[in-house]
Structures are given as structure tokens and as C-alpha cells.
Design goal:
Order of helices and strands: EHEEHHHEEHHEHEHEHHEEHEHEHEHHH
CATH superfamily of the largest domain: Glycogen Phosphorylase B
Low-confidence stretches: none
Radius of gyration: 21 Å
Strand content: 15-25%
CATH architecture of the largest domain: 3-Layer(aba) Sandwich
Mean pLDDT: 92
Number of domains: 2
Structural class: alpha/beta
Helix content: 40-55%
Number of strands: 13
Length: about 375
């Protein structure tokens, strides 16, 4: 099976936090026997059996795109000055498709990368994340995407079940909608937690810093975390000009290795009060695999992950948020929720190799292959 995987995000090196899930996806697919994998993505370290298929000019432009924070952030932050960027990106992807007529199947990450698919009838697996739902609000976008999907077999694979119905409403006539969970690196399952009874008691927030991603975090947290013995530690890149209160411990962007080795073991849990259009936030899944309970805003993306009162707590007001913090200060309750979170991750997510097998089964189905072949 010759697979061309297309992504507009990929980490430049081991210390780069951007697009780490794509690196794991590529590495796991490369370990599947019988797959020959080519990757069109920003330059970064690839497994030895995987071929990078970007031209030098494309690689240079994609590198600049990553530095700018990706196409969505570029458009938000620089407005009309970048109106041509999506068209340039689409032309580059279209050229990459044309250069590789020999592939058997396209593995496309993000709906925007499916727009330039060639009219050659070859099947496509399109992985969809939360940001894609915003794209579908643009006029004629659903029509344009359906047009590229006609006369080919297509599986649209959101990484969360809550996206199934809205995607089926738009694409059900031209594609099969098959939710596929991403996997988890085994290092998170192997992490051993320390007792949360130790002082200071630390809660973690790992997110890109934007108004929507932070939500009411600072407002709702101030009274609780200004008490003696409680600390709120914030990790992530500054993507909007956000004022951080002096009682918050802000560390900037952190690598997964730093989080799993230095911060997650002694944490009380992970907090996200995001109002952003999430898919299935990978950092939440990793925290659960590490055995951390979750406190999250009540929204479909979070409710599809967190079982309220078992693996974490969902909140929609300052009072319910503070009640969740107070509840999970209890050492026994915290440990019980953490164990349940890890068990859920093992059962529902597995590893990236498990995820690769899920994708491979869909490849074979799209190509009309028997699963035993």
C-alpha cells in the first residue's frame, strides 16, 4: 500500500511542541508492515523508511508557516495581509498530489488539505480535528469539499465522536464518517504519580494562550489559588497578547518530555476551561493516560472524554469549578479518579500503534482489500 500523508503541521525537532501528534502518527504508520509512506509536511525528523516529498521551496514556505503558528493563527493574527496564504498553500498541496500519481491512497489531515485533491478517483482518508468545524461555516465550503469527494471512496475520520453528526449532515452523501481516536505514547501510561498530599499542591494548565483557550481560568481561579499551599502552573505558547496574573506560574511552551518527567508526576490534575472549538484535546488524553484527573469546562469535546464524577469533573460556573477543585484536593478521591482516567485511556485509546492499525483497516476497506491481506 502506497500512502501519501499530507499535513500542514509537523515538529521541526524533538524539542518542538508543534504537531507532535502528527510525528507519532507518521512513526506508527511507518511500523505497519506493507505500507510505503510518503509525507508532505513541514520539515522534521522522519523514520528512515518514510520519504519526505516536499520540494525545497515548499519545505521553506512550510517552515515559515510553522514559525507563524500555522495557517489558522496566521490568518487570525495578520488579517488581510495574509489573504493569499490559503491559496498558496492549496496550490502547493495540489502540486504535491500531481507529482505522485503512483500512490494508492491519500491520508489527509485537516479538511483544508482535501480541497486540492485531484480528480483521479483514488480513495482518501481525511482526518478531522475541531478546527475543521469552523472551516465548514464558510460559505460554499461544504459544497467545494463534497465536489472533491465525489467519484472516489472517502472516509472522514474525526478524532472525537461528537463531530460525527455535524459531519454526516454535510458529507453523509459522499463519504463514510468513521470516528478514530488518536493514540497515546507509552511513556504516559508508564508514568508513576507522586502523592498529591505533598506541598505545594499544584494544578496544571497546558494550552495555547488565547482568550478562547483560557476561558474564565484566571477569573474563576484567583480566590482559590491565592490561598496558601495551592499553585496554578500554566504551560503553552503565547499566541495572543494575554495578561497573566502574578499569582500564576507561567512557564512558556513545554515539551512532552518535560511534562511527563518534571510536572505531571506531582500534579493534582489538569485543568482546561477552554471555550475554543476543540476536537479531542491530545493533552487531556495524555494526562488521563498518566493517571491525572481532569477538571474541564462543560462542552461536547470535553464531555466526550471526561466522565463526570469518575475520571474528572465538568463545570459551567465558577461555583461548580471551585467545588471540583475542593473535591479533588482529597487524596483518596484524587487517586481514585486518576486510576479511572488511566483505565479509560487504556481501554478507549491504546497506543499510537493501535491507532495506526485503526487507520490501516480503513485503508484496506477503501481499497477493497480483505482484512487478512
Amino acid at each position: 500500500m502506497r500512502v501519501l500523508l499530507v499535513s500542514t503541521s509537523y515538529p521541526s525537532d524533538a524539542s518542538d511542541w508543534r504537531g507532535v501528534f502528527i510525528r507519532h502518527m507518521v512513526a506508527a504508520l511507518a511500523r505497519v508492515p506493507g505500507i510505503t509512506l510518503g509525507v508532505w509536511a513541514p520539515p522534521g525528523e522522519l523514520p528512515g523508511t518514510v520519504k519526505a516529498v516536499m520540494t525545497p521551496d515548499e519545505a521553506s514556505w512550510l517552515t515559515q508557516l510553522m514559525v507563524a503558528g500555522g495557517i489558522s493563527h496566521l490568518m487570525r493574527s495578520r488579517g488581510w495581509k495574509t489573504l493569499l496564504a490559503p491559496f498558496k498553500l492549496a496550490r502547493m498541496i495540489a502540486a504535491a498530489y500531481r507529482r505522485h500519481p503512483e500512490v494508492d491512497i491519500y491520508h489527509v489531515n485537516w479538511l483544508q488539505c482535501a480541497l486540492p485533491l485531484p480528480a483521479n478517483g483514488k480513495p482518501a482518508l481525511i482526518a478531522v480535528l475541531g478546527n475543521d468545524m469552523k472551516l465548514l461555516r464558510l460559505p460554499l465550503m461544504g459544497w467545494a469539499l463534497r465536489r472533491t469527494m465525489r467519484k472516489r471512496k472517502v472516509a472522514i475520520c474525526p478524532n472525537a465522536e461528537w463531530m460525527y453528526e455535524p459531519l454526516r449532515a454535510v458529507f453523509g452523501s459522499v463519504a463514510e464518517i468513521i470516528p478514530i481516536s488518536f493514540g497515546i505514547d507509552p511513556c504516559w501510561y508508564a508514568m508513576e504519580r507522586k502523592s498529591v498530599a505533598q506541598e505545594p499542591r499544584r494544578w496544571l494548565v497546558v494550552t495555547r494562550l488565547t482568550g478562547d483557550k483560557l476561558g474564565p481560568l484566571f477569573e474563576w481561579s484567583q480566590d482559590f489559588f491565592c490561598q496558601q499551599g495551592y499553585e496554578l502552573h500554566l504551560f503553552g505558547p503565547m499566541q495572543e497578547q494575554v495578561s497573566i496574573p502574578d499569582w500564576v506560574h507561567y512557564h512558556g511552551a513545554a515539551t512532552p518530555q518535560q511534562l511527563v518527567e518534571e510536572w505531571f508526576p506531582g500534579a493534582c490534575g489538569l485543568i482546561t476551561l477552554s471555550r475554543h472549538a476543540e476536537g479531542r484535546p491530545q493533552v487531556m488524553l495524555e494526562a488521563m493516560a498518566a493517571g491525572l484527573p481532569i477538571i474541564a469546562s462543560r462542552m461536547p469535546a470535553h464531555a466526550s472524554i471526561v466522565t463526570h464524577g469518575r475520571t474528572g469533573m465538568l463545570c459551567d460556573t465558577a461555583d461548580t469549578y471551585l467545588a471540583a477543585l475542593e473535591c479533588l484536593q482529597d487524596v483518596d478521591i484524587n487517586a481514585r479518579y486518576g486510576r479511572a482516567a488511566r483505565e479509560w485511556a487504556i481501554e478507549n485509546l491504546g497506543t499510537w500503534d493501535d491507532c495506526a492499525q485503526r487507520y490501516t483497516r480503513i485503508y484496506r476497506s477503501l481499497l477493497g482489500c480483505d482484512s487478512s491481506e
